[in-house]
Structure formats: C-alpha cells, structure tokens
Amino acid sequence: MDFQGKRKPHPMLGSFSYAVTGILTALLSERNMRIHLISSIVVILFSIYFSITRMEWIVILFAVGGMFSLELINTAIERVVDLITKEYHPLAKQAKDIAAGAVFLYAVLSVIVGGIIFIPYIFRLFE
User: Fold this and answer.
1) CB neighbours (10 Å) of residue 40?
2) Three-state DSSP class for 5?
3) Quick one: how far is CA 94 from the chain centroid?
4) Going by CATH, does the domain composed of 32-125 fall within 1.10.287.3610?
5) Has 127 been annotated as catalytic?
6) Catalytically annotated residue among 71, 78, 87, 127
7) pLDDT at 3 over 70
8) N or C: which end of the chain has fewer CB within 10 A?
9) How many alpha carbons lie under 13 Å from residue 83 in its C-beta half-sphere?
10) In this model, does residue 1 exceed pLDDT 60?
C-alpha cells in the first residue's frame, strides 16, 4: 500500500500487462502478425489431429513462439526507426531490411521444420 492507503499494482503484473498490450497492438496493426497467428492455429490443429510426439510438440512450439517473437522484434525496430526519422535514410532502410530478413529466414526454417514433421503424417493418410 502507498501512503494514501491505496494498493499499488504489483510491478510484475504491470510488466505482463504491457507485454500483452504490445502483442495485441502488433496483432491488430500488423498484417504479418495476423498471418502468423492463422498459420500457427492451423499448425496447432494439425499437431492435435496427427497426435504428434512430445518432442515434435516442443519443436513446433519453439517454431511458433520464435516466429511471433521475431515478428514482434521486427515490428518494434520498424516503429523505433519510424519514430526517429520520417525521411529516407539508407541506415534506416538497412535496419528495417535486416530485421525483416531475420523474420523471413526464421519463417523459411519454420516451414522446413513443419514439412519434416508433417509430411510423413500426411503420407500415412494416403497409405
């Protein structure tokens, strides 16, 4: 309690609140975040349908979580660059392009991992 008898919010709860607000802001404002969300839901439904192994679940969850994390970092970098300069600057472009490249690289890796996990299950459907 503070000196006026009011309860102070717990600092950790405030941090979680800010984090959730950031995620929701990105989901509402960034098309790619919504694409990742839909893709993740499809992947999770496939995982449930195919009853993938525990280790495969771990890999899938890291792929999904990593993708969201990188997209959030990319969005944050874009916002900071836009905040600093509205004018074209080659370093600003490079910062945005490099961050987007990291997301793209991880997305390609995630698709490959998904293929390695799900293609055998899909082939078994047709046997």
Assistant:
1) 18
2) coil
3) 21
4) yes
5) no
6) 71
7) no
8) C
9) 6
10) no
